[in-house]
Amino acid sequence: MKTNAKSIQNDNNYYFPKKKITGIGASPRKNGNSDVLLKYILEGAKRNNIAVENVQLRDYQFQPCIGCERCRKDKICTGLNDGMHLLYPKILGSQGLILVSPTHNYNVTAWMKAFIDRLYCFYDFDDNRSSGWSSRLSGQARKAVLAAVCEQQSKKDMGFTLEAMRLPLEALGYEIIGELAVLAVFNRGKVKEKKEILAKASTLGANLAKSLAR
After folding, report:
1. Based on the structure, what is the number of domains in the chain?
2. Do 200 and 180 contact (CB within 8 A), yes or no?
């Protein structure tokens, strides 16, 4: 069944997320280090008796925001009809969220940036430009964890990767429970050899699950 903006708006559960966690992976490289980290974070959450879902942005065809501003009136993205309309119900229906991205040029990947920009449709604005705003996702005890992977050894070379995920989620109303910065890892799946990092990833997921159970 195709999901579109109208069906999302008509969903009676639109504003009532379930105690579920959706993990969003933003790497273009299948079975790479970001995929491994997301898997371990989700497994840590799942061991605490919470439903989880693993979503890879590379598996969806969607465009970046085009700035049409139709969502200000329609309360969901109606300017584009693409794979984001399969992702919106997952985000709306999950109280917990995981974002994982490798560092591309000191920032998140283009897939993650486009995904975050398309969440703009959940903001409400007043009638003035440079206006006041609020998020329709706030006040729902939504919580999130973040992870980023960088080839270089210095956290400075990770640039804005974690910040580029944290600030938009906080603005949308998410409480950030924890973050994981993984450095000096590049070869595909190499992070599997880093037992301490994998343990931290699992704990990150467990902490997110426990925070939703309170």
Report:
1. 1
2. yes
